[in-house]
């Protein structure tokens, strides 16, 4: 009996680790489901693999094998010769709440995939391997690979949407009149605040390449009269405002670079103003959650990192701020509020 138990445990451990090792298979399968639009194609109802292959102009036999793998992953089900969408598949459908379709494609594209292949060297050296794998930083790579850069931008926008939707209703604005979204890409965060608060005026600080997207998004939402785009570099300076938004910014950079960004905010912050940071907040080492995986992505791709609450407090203190609030958002994200110390 004891030998049988040990054998079963060994077999179970083997299966668990085998699933881990095949994780890159899984990632590429999910990304291909997104790339081929299966979530959209199956939204109207079940279809045969041949019908899906014809619609997507893919090889019928390869399409069937991909769909069968999707059954194993829970993306689709199979009954009476047809494949049907599951709830998991709907998360790959663009434009829906909590969509991850663009992220699935972005994280399996060369810009992320190639640096991750150098993870052992990352751990040996403690340094990002993006330059070695891509010939430059990930941002430089995106500048010369614009389609992949645009894909990543859409992925981050999708990832941001549910977090913004949770943050906006719970953010107390008080006497705040002006809000600046620092490094805010298309300005989704500040524009959502403007839509919910008609008295606010907002801006986004970004590099020149992001200006058209930000202006287009403001026009789409009908908020151009209360919104403008500031072209600049947050390492140099930031525009004056009552409230600064820093969403998914600090995790890209080292502690020293973060302190520089935060000090620039301190120097330009209007009297009585404050800042809001939206980032992953790591749990205890014994139970870090998915943030630990996201932190490894930062280790591979950039000089930054995900941080614990204590580490954010230390950054704030070094720049002359103190934390005044913490609101947990969709796991693993949180909103940290701070004012001048």
UniProtKB/TrEMBL annotation:
Q: Which GO terms describe its biological process?
A: methylation
Asked whether the keyword Transferase is assigned, the reply is: yes
Q: Which PROSITE patterns match?
A: SAM_OMT_II
**UniProt key word Iron:** no
Q: Which Pfam families match?
A: Dimerisation, Methyltransf_2
Q: Which residues form the O-methyltransferase dimerisation domain?
A: 19-88
Q: Name one GO molecular function term.
A: methyltransferase activity
Give the UniProt keywords, A-Z.
Answer: Methyltransferase, S-adenosyl-L-methionine, Transferase
Q: Where is the O-methyltransferase C-terminal domain?
A: 116-322
Alphabetical list of InterPro entries matching this protein: COMT-like, COMT_C, COMT_dimerisation, SAM-dependent_MTases_sf, WH-like_DNA-bd_sf, WH_DNA-bd_sf
* PANTHER family, sorted: O-METHYLTRANSFERASE CICE (PTHR43712:SF2), PUTATIVE (AFU_ORTHOLOGUE AFUA_4G14580)-RELATED (PTHR43712)
Protein name listed in UniProt = Methyltransferase
Organism, scientific name = Pseudonocardia adelaidensis
